[in-house]
Amino acid sequence: MTTEIIEETEINNIYNNIKELVISARNKVYTTVNIEMLNLYWDFCKIIMDIQKGDKRASYGDAILDKLSKKLTNEFGKGFSKRNLERMRKFYISFPIATTVSSQLSWSHYLELIKIDEDAKRNFYLNECINSR
């Protein structure tokens, strides 16, 4: 009986150590994927906005998004709908300086933040999100 208790205790210790490693690795993977996704979306729209040259060619930019959406969806699957590309463009417009994009927030956070038109309000809620985790 004592041997069984010791074995069970050892197994639980090993399990807990491995569990912590798995959780830590998952968190690192999530963080890395999130950072890369935000960078991709920002860089993607920087290219679009450079071609669009601001509001003067907005309709041209819309046509580009439509065509790109079809090509990207065929190549990479869902996630590149025209609506999502428009959100990426709004993300870039709302955060035109790459260093202002916080890796502490997810794409879902940014989808909510880009709905806020006033910079001061958006920055307030951005900081609230970061502080509240």
Task: Give the tags.
133 residues; 5 helices; elongated
Query: Using only CA atoms, what is the Rg?
Result: 22 Å
Form type: elongated
How would a textbook summarize the main sheet?
Answer: none
The SSE order reads HHHHH
Could you say which structural class the secondary elements and strand pairing correspond to?
Answer: mainly alpha
Q: Could you give the count of β-strands?
A: 0
Residues in helix, %: over 70%
**Cα distance spanning the termini:** 47 Å
Low-confidence stretches are none
Overall pLDDT score: 87
Number of domains: 1
How much of the sequence is in beta strands? under 5%
How many alpha or pi helices?
A: 5
Describe it:
The chain is mainly alpha-helical. The chain has one domain. The chain contains five helices and no strands. It has helices at 2-52, 58-76, 82-94, 107-113, 119-132. Helix 1 (2-52) packs antiparallel against helix 2 (58-76) and helix 1 (2-52) packs across helix 3 (82-94). It starts with a helix and ends with a helix.
Short synopsis of the structure:
The protein is built from five helices and no strands. With 133 residues, the chain is mainly α.
Topology of helices and strands:
Blueprint: H1 2-52, H2 58-76, H3 82-94, H4 107-113, H5 119-132
Helix pairs in contact: 1-2, 1-3
